[in-house]
Design a protein that fits this description.
alpha/beta
């Protein structure tokens, strides 16, 4: 699936990064909160168990600061439990004593970024956390690049398989919609053929049964994509009164739409319309990634159409 792009990362950096502080001593927990609340969105937990529950409901944070010696479970044990679901989160341990074995094992296993001894200096800890956030952003960037490469590879593989197996264009439409929807994490997707600059009745769709080809007929985003032969994106589709499908998108909880034209030698052969039920930034990097799969789809449609013409 495609993750957020460089533009999204810029947006992410402009907002307060989220961090979680964990300590069983209320005074320490309050001090950590007051130290970082001006520059971070700070979540608090009094134990590892409570922190795991909080992460389960709130989702990923950039940085976790945890005390080492806590009842129920040590800080290193708690942090190790966060690694499978949140591998990019940067973890920091606060320790008031020398628990070398646990700390060394945790650091070697990649579960702890740094450990800070108590009593900690606020300015020193702020510096460590700032570097931790930078590390988190780099890790997220790497993860996103890997995800985009995997999405492109999966799409290309599906398109090649369809090219070899497709007996008709109609037989490819729903599988193509499914492949793009899955790899771009869309909630619904329509792949509709275009002829002479107009939408045709031939389409394939996945996701919501209410979002059909008819909903694209008067969609200004689709018409612009066909006319200008360029991708069109609306990240506020559910509230855009200029879209004919706004009422439908509101009913379906659609917040974002992207329309990608499939163009071959200046002719628009089809459009791919993707819809998300949450804010989704499909911007320059992601569209650049789609260039190769979309071109391969254009070649496939052209070849299948030519074979059908020859058969007649």
């Amino acid at each position: 699936m495609i993750a957020d792009t460089s533009a999204t990362r810029t947006q992410r950096k402009s907002k307060k990064a989220r961090m979680l502080v964990v300590d069983d001593e209320p005074d320490n927990l309050d001090l950590l909160y007051r130290t970082f609340r001006r520059h971070f969105n700070v979540l608090r937990a009094k134990s590892g168990v409570e922190a795991l529950e909080l992460l389960s409901s709130e989702g990923e944070v950039a940085v976790i600061i945890s005390d080492q010696r806590m009842p129920e479970m040590k800080g290193t044990e708690f942090l190790s439990k966060t690694v499978p679901e949140f591998p990019d989160t940067v973890r920091i341990i606060l320790t008031g004593f020398t628990d070398v074995e646990d700390l060394v094992d945790a650091i070697n296993a990649g579960q702890v970024y740094r450990y800070i001894t108590k009593p900690w200096d606020p300015e020193e800890l702020k510096g460590v956390v700032d570097r931790a956030v930078e590390t988190y952003d780099l890790l997220k960037q790497r993860t996103e690049e890997i995800q985009r490469a995997q999405a492109q590879s999966a799409l290309m593989e599906t398109i090649f398989e369809l090219s070899e197996q497709a007996a008709s264009i109609d037989a490819t439409l729903t599988p193509l919609a499914a492949a793009f929807s899955e790899n771009l994490s869309a909630n619904s997707c329509i792949f509709q053929l275009v002829k002479a600059g107009e939408l045709t009745p031939a389409f394939g769709s996945v996701g919501s049964p209410n979002i059909t080809a008819e909903s694209l007929a008067d969609n200004s985003l689709v018409q612009t994509a066909i006319a200008e032969k360029t991708p069109q994106i609306n990240t506020n589709a559910g509230a855009d009164e200029g879209l004919a499908a706004t009422a439908l998108y509101q009913a379906e909880g659609i917040e974002a739409q992207a329309v990608i034209p499939v163009v071959f030698r200046g002719e628009v052969l089809a459009v791919l319309s993707l819809h998300w039920q949450e804010p989704h930034e499909l911007l320059e990097n992601a569209i650049a990634l789609l260039a190769m799969p979309i071109y391969q789809v254009a070649l496939m449609l052209t070849c299948v159409r030519s074979m059908a013409t020859l058969a007649v």
